[in-house]
Design goal:
Strand order of the largest sheet: 2-3-4-5-1-6-7-9-8
Distance between the termini: 32 Å
Domain Immunity protein: 3-186
Protein name: Immunity protein 52 domain-containing protein
Helix content: 25-40%
Pfam family, one: Imm52
Organism: Thermobifida alba
InterPro entries: Imm52
């Protein structure tokens, strides 16, 4: 069975307000809901499915999300004081048969070796109704929305087995069926066989084959080869 994929977008220290982060998140969730109904409604996470579902769906306006981001701040164990340099975090899930969840961490500044600003959307395994989420056009809509809104240094649509087969230097881009790298010209990507490349946002978007569920080892090797030379 094919592993579940995830969209991961990562960026370095960025000084921004929690209100600005909430506005970006609100826009991101709106765009995800437009891409597929399973990504349109979100719930708080809990210790059990029943607990997580009990409060009903959360509001996804910028104001509601700002309140939840503030509530998710990291605090010191000793005195409960906010650790401001660790930014704001929030995780929600969709309470849907095609089960998905996301987590966001934003406003980390200055640089942290052990944490990055990120937006990660975890999809279910591509079986049953969840297989719709792996339609290439839906994947592209979701992935490009995340990149466009969060402006990451790099982003990937990949799964655990692909990730484990790659270079594991901390912070180095991980390749997948779709891979985005900021600041890289399309002409450089055109040198790699087996991939299609296009200019997108502030960098280059790579696509490895026609379908994420049919990505071959040679496709992955091409992506890894390209990323290793950055």
């Amino acid at each position: 069975m094919v592993d579940a994929f995830y969209v991961g977008a990562y960026w370095g220290p960025r000084s921004e307000s929690v209100g600005g982060c909430a506005q970006q998140l609100a826009l991101c969730l709106s765009r995800l809901g437009e891409a597929h109904p399973a990504l349109a409604t979100w719930f708080r996470q809990g210790m059990s499915r029943a607990e997580a579902s009990s409060g009903g769906p959360v509001g996804t306006s910028a104001e509601a999300l700002e309140s939840m981001l503030k509530a998710g701040r990291n605090r010191r164990d000793t005195d409960g004081q906010v650790i401001s340099e660790l930014g704001f975090s929030l995780s929600l899930w969709n309470n849907n048969p095609a089960e998905a969840s996301f987590s966001v961490t934003c406003c980390i500044a200055p640089a942290m070796d052990f944490m990055k600003n990120c937006f990660v959307l975890k999809l279910p395994k591509p079986v049953g109704v969840a297989a719709e989420l792996y339609d290439p056009e839906i994947v592209r809509s979701v992935f490009c929305s995340v990149v466009d809104i969060w402006d990451p240094q790099w982003a990937t649509f990949t799964n655990r087995s692909m990730r484990e087969a790659q270079y594991k230097d901390h912070g180095h881009p991980i390749g997948g069926w779709m891979t985005y790298v900021s600041g890289v010209r399309k002409a450089k990507a055109d040198e790699v066989t087996g991939l299609s490349a296009e200019e997108f946002s502030n960098g280059t978007l790579l696509v490895a084959g026609a379908n994420p569920l049919q990505m071959s080892d040679s496709h992955l090797s091409s992506v890894v080869d390209f990323l290793s030379r950055l």
